[in-house]
Amino acid sequence: MLLPIITRGDPCFTGLIRYNYQGRPLYFKVAFIYNNLLAIYGESFRMRVIAFANQKGGVGKTTCAVTLADGLARKKLRVLLIDLDPQGHAALSLGFQKSAGLYHFLSLEEPLKNLVVHARPNLDLLPGDKLTEKVKHQIALMDFRKTILSDHLTGLDYDAVILDLAPSLDVLHINGLSASDWVVIPTRLDMLSIDGVKEVLLTMAELSQSGKCYRGYSILPTFFERTTKETLSQFRELVQTFSGHVWPPIPQDASVRAASAQGKTLWETSRNTSALLGFKNGRQFQGGFNQVLERLLEVIRDEKE
Ligand SMILES: Nc1ncnc2c1ncn2[C@@H]1O[C@H](COP(=O)(O)OP(=O)(O)OP(=O)(O)O)[C@@H](O)[C@H]1O
Ligand SMILES: [Mg+2]
Asked: Distance between CA atoms of 77 and 160, rounded to whole angstroms?
């Protein structure tokens, strides 16, 4: 059974305020009435944090996070991509070396501006590497351990922060989900990956029960093969179960692997490839990163109700 997830319609917003007292951080938990905050400040000023999560490995989390982060940056949004995975693949996918940016940011409390790589115009990257493992052990010993990342993101000056999560259920995964306004769950169209979707939703529901508010979540089918029976039947089932939450699928496409092997994004290597354009359905294209980027922009943009 899935527990309810508190989403953007709910009038609550909780967070931590950090105050340095004699060199030691003190945390105060605060709760605001979300709708009142909107009325006072207006929505468009709030940075959006979007996590790409699925505990199942190899479903396309990093590919989606990197491609869409660069897509948003090309639309002139100021984007920060944070690698929360000790594998450090976000940096490699953008043509940079892995490095211990996340460790220096969360464990050594160094300023973000000294740690980010200016990966592309408008796109900053906070890389990770195997020292990210050490961050997990340190967070596990801290107070307010679920919200350490969210606390560190408070006050940053970006339009969007994209989190690339590791395929694991650990304290950093929980921190990623706790810090997010919106969660995108990439999934292959097979039973085990879809089980990973349910696990992410369960974790979000548990966090919601302890006061976390989400604006929403989306399920992003990846490696879509129109001609494969299992893909199609799993896709239909996904749409029936999660209806409005399922985004247009990303086709399976050899250009994806080729682009990341060169340390480039698809927007740089193959603008006419199916992973970007989607697949042809009659005269129209369906799915692909072009369409998904529009969905993501809707999430980030000011949505007047
Ligand atoms: N749509 C696609 N078509 C073909 N290959 C893809 C597609 N999406 C991703 N890939 C390739 O699949 C592999 C796994 O993708 P990726 O690293 O993005 O998954 P992940 O979920 O981040 O993996 P992990 O769980 O290990 O972090 C990569 O080699 C990537 O280039
Ligand atoms: Mg990954």
From this structure: 7
Instruction: Give the tens place of pLDDT for each residue, 244-272.
Output: 999 999 999 999 999 999 999 999 999 99
22 within a domain of the structure (yes/no): no
What residue ranges line ligand 1, CB within 6 angstroms? 57-63, 85, 87, 89, 167, 222-223, 250, 252-253, 256-257, 260, 275
In a domain, residue 164? The reply is yes
Q: Average pLDDT of 191-197?
A: 91
Structural domain of 262: 41-300
Instruction: Give 26 Cα–ligand 2 centroid separation in angstroms.
Output: 33
Which residues sit opposite 18 in a β-bridge? 27
**Ligand nearest 93 Cα, by number?**
1
> Best mutation site among 63, 84, 270 for ligand 1, i.e. most ligand atoms within 8 A of its Cβ?
63
Domain-located, residue 30: no
pLDDT at 231: 87
Inside any domain, residue 6: no
Q: From residue 77, how far is each of 114, 135, 263 by CA, in Å?
A: 21, 29, 21
Global pTM?
A: 0.88
d(CA 301, CA 182): 13
Total of domains in the chain = 1
91 vs 8: which has the higher pLDDT: 91
Give the helix, strand, coil percentages of the chain, each rounded to 5.
Answer: 45, 20, 35
Distance 61 CA to ligand 2 centre (A): 5
CATH number at residue 263: 3.40.50.300
Ligand nearest to the CA of 258: 1
Chain-wide mean pLDDT for the chain? 88
